[in-house]
Amino acid sequence: MSVPLARVSRHEVRLVPSRICRRAVLNIRHNSTTAVSEAEQQNLSWSKYLEIRKSKRKWETAITIPACILGLVGGLAYFGSLESDATKPIMGIDPLFFYSGCTVSCMGLGYLIGPTIGAAGWRMTHRRTMNLIEAKDREFHRHIVKNRVDPTAQSATNPVPDFYGEKIGSLHQYRQWLRDQARFRRKARFAEE
Q1: 3-state SS, residue 14
Q2: Angle at CA 67, nearest 5°, toward 66 and 72?
């Protein structure tokens, strides 16, 4: 069993316990693996980014459904408990229809608020990589703006395909989106001629 040596100065050599040496080696190894993972994180690939984007959309959809249900239940609980006189219309509308409309409006409010809550929850779970994701978002948005079609050429028979690229969740879907944009351009151009 050998005892490691450590050089203190040019001419002096001191014995170092093997336990300290092992810690130093482990620290060096740990530092080298964290440096690699940081380098990997600085380079977010397109496939990984699109997968993250797809998961964000799933979060938004998953939270929207309970938010709609809560809005409906809240509207039913509030407007269902109000006493109303059928002979006195509210803004010229029968109270039953008015309160039913308000209940449905509460559900619509849940539908509008749900994606916001879902996106906030998703952002809380992805705090560490938000800078990388936001940088890739800006770059993705530039790609979308550059490649999307002019919406003024749309018609009832030729609607614009996914103008904002919201449904893109993989490289295959991105390529399909590009093909759809090109197809729309051809249809719009040939319809004018």
Answers
A1: strand
A2: 95
pLDDT tens per residue across span 28-42: 444 444 443 555 556
Q: Are 160 and 177 in contact (CB under 8 A)?
A: no
CA nearest neighbour of 168 among 132, 139, 138, 144: 144
Q: What is the pTM of this model?
A: 0.63
Residue 8 has pLDDT above 70, yes or no: no
Tell me phi and psi for residue 128, to 5 degrees.
-65, -35
Checking if the pLDDT of 110 tops 60, the result is: yes
Rounded Cα gap, residues 33 and 189, in angstroms: 54
109-114 average pLDDT score? 95
Residues 169 and 54: beta-carbon distance below 8 Å:
yes
Q: Measured between alpha carbons, how far is residue 135 from residues 14, 42, 56, 163 in Å?
A: 51, 11, 16, 21
Spatial separation of the C-alpha atoms in residues 68 and 61, rounded to whole Å: 11
Q: Would you tell me how many other CB atoms lie within 10 Å of the CB of residue 15?
A: 9
CA 53/CA 169 separation, integer angstroms:
6
Using DSSP's 3-state secondary structure scheme, residue 15 falls into strand
Question: pLDDT by residue (tens digit) across 147-159?
Answer: 888 888 787 777 8
